[in-house]
Amino acid sequence: MVILQQVLFIDYIWQELKLSYLKLKSCYLLGKNPILAKLFYIAKGGEKMPEISVLKNILELVEKGINSALVTITKSEGSTPRVTGAQMGVLEDGSIIGTIGGGALEKKAIELALKSIKANRSMSVNIPLEDEGMVCGGEVDIFIQVFSSRPELLIIGGGHVSLALYQIANFLNFDIVIFEDREEFLNRERFPLAKKLILGLVDDSLRKYDINEDSYIVIVTRGHKYDGEALEAVMDSKAKYIGVIGSKRKVLSMFNNLREKGIDEERLSKIYSPIGLDIADNTPEEIAISILAEILAVKNNKTGLHMKLDIDSYKEQGK
């Protein structure tokens, strides 16, 4: 988010310069400041400024949950379609923003960028143009920087456990969204760093929200009735994790109610409830840690078991 704000600020400055370039005709300024001279030349229409536009568009798409990559030519030798510094954005669906010259080079760069996006790993690559069927004989080095959207933690409810979840989850790589129907429990003073605060009927808000495979949902409302309504609203979503707080007795009662409404066992089996790993006492903070530990286990495909070494087994293996 900070990077996007910086890019937007640079773009704003660029637009201001473009609109008022006549004010920059001072020979002294242009002669002493090469950056200002460059901007003046661009503002007069001598050259476009595509790099900022490409990066700005990519960051805006990532904010919307679309994974992308920025391809930059870091070195070019011989006869090449574009020079060092040329940039192109590649979206996860294969579409592009900008260009690094088209043709075989661009096709190869798109293929590599899509692989990087899928692996969520940035990389540097050398591309000899002869290997790509181009007769110009040059070669380029490109750097592919992957921009991935962050997973979302949807916290349903704004009470004590929700607040503890929010506070601890801020140390993890989640965008946090809070749903609540009570204004006094949903405000920027209480959740200053949340990505979104959604006030209103929780079940209605959840049905309208775009929940995807990178969504992790924790239902911790103020009562069984509201928990059940929220769960029904997200039951058939694509969320990777859905957890509901409550005792075993409460969970059994809630599941029985859902069965009576036609919810089958397969759908119920996807719900993590009672929620969290068995590590906490009854304080909101420890409950929050146990919930987030379970979420991380699901997110990272881990077991949640101890990693403690079995010394006896280790000794046997070392013989």
Structure description:
- With 319 residues, the protein is of the alpha/beta class.
- The chain is built from 12 helices and 11 strands.
- α1 packs across α3.
- It is elongated, with a radius of gyration of 26 Å.
- It starts with a helix and ends with a helix.
Question: What's this, in brief?
Answer:
Helix content is 42%, strand content 18%. It has helices at residues 2-19, 27-32, 34-43, 50-63, 103-119, 160-169, 202-208, 224-234, 248-260, 265-268, 284-299, 311-318; strands at residues 68-77, 87-91, 96-98, 123-128, 139-147, 152-156, 175-180, 196-199, 215-219, 241-244, 271-272.
Jot down its keywords.
319 residues, 6-stranded parallel beta sheet, alpha/beta, 5-stranded antiparallel beta sheet, 42% helix
List the helices and strands and how they pair.
Layout: H1 2-19, H2 27-32, H3 34-43, H4 50-63, E1 68-77, E2 87-91, E3 96-98, H5 103-119, E4 123-128, E5 139-147, E6 152-156, H6 160-169, E7 175-180, E8 196-199, H7 202-208, E9 215-219, H8 224-234, E10 241-244, H9 248-260, H10 265-268, E11 271-272, H11 284-299, H12 311-318
Parallel strand pairs: 6-7, 6-9, 7-8, 9-10, 10-11
Antiparallel strand pairs: 1-2, 1-5, 2-3, 4-5
Helix pairs in contact: 1-3, 1-4, 6-11, 7-8
